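Limitations

Structures in this collection are predictions, not experimental determinations, and the ligand pose is part of the prediction. Treat each record accordingly. The example that follows, with zinc ion as the small molecule, is included so readers can see exactly what is and is not provided: the inputs are given verbatim, and the output is the predicted complex.
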Amino acid sequence: MNLLLMGPPGAGKGTQSKRLEGVFGLVQLSTGDMLRAAVKSGSDLGRKAQAIMERGDLVPDDLIIDMISARIEEPDCANGFILDGFPRTVPQAEALAVMLAEKGGKLDHVIELAVDDDAMVQRITGRYTCAGCGQGYHDEFEKPATEGVCDKCGGTEFTRRADDTEDTVRNRLNAYHEQTAPILAYYKEQGVLKDVDGMADIDAVTDQLKGVIGGA
Ligand code: ADP
Ligand code: ADP
Ligand code: ZN
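Predicted complex:
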């Protein structure tokens, strides 16, 4: 089974993908995480992407399409995946359809996390991640049980993304509405688009997603 979670920055795509991975035995494919790893490694792709990401603009389609088409060929994707952050433009969505058709696969569910833009600034500026295991947290909405200690791995070091600032978020929200939201119409026409209330609390969103996806 292949899933696609859609929604602006802060909608909860990463948080929910990580939860669904375990429930359905799927692997999360976050193009944002892949690009941040490329930047950290100093690869060719990373050097091309870094300044673009810091501004909150979109990295060119050809770079993203090459990156994801290589990734979905890896053995851990054979059981299915959850796309988080890709596709983000109509050409990316069209390229994905070709890739999947070549593999004899398809998107089983495309789910939009419907949220209010105004609330996304607060979600993004309060977001942080465990440096040890990657578990996501929020200053107000998803705190670890013991302050400063990761629930999952006991780690005490946390990181914040360089692009999670108020200014950049506004640019990323604009990019979403201008370049990414048109994809919703593309999937709607194909009859695969469903939506879930992304403003509910985190557990309630997970329950809604399980209901839409079914089978678990
Ligand atoms: P995305 O991957 O769509 O950009 P994240 O999953 O990283 O979004 O969520 C952004 C921030 O908001 C994180 O700090 C997360 O803990 C928090 N968050 C996610 N879903 C919710 C929710 N339903 N209610 C409140 N906060 C949330
Ligand atoms: P968020 O979870 O907040 O929506 P991501 O981690 O998905 O953000 O993406 C961070 C940045 O990486 C984006 O602002 C963009 O610069 C780049 N990026 C990630 N995925 C794509 C993509 N599919 N196409 C173009 N740029 C991308
Ligand atoms: Zn951790």
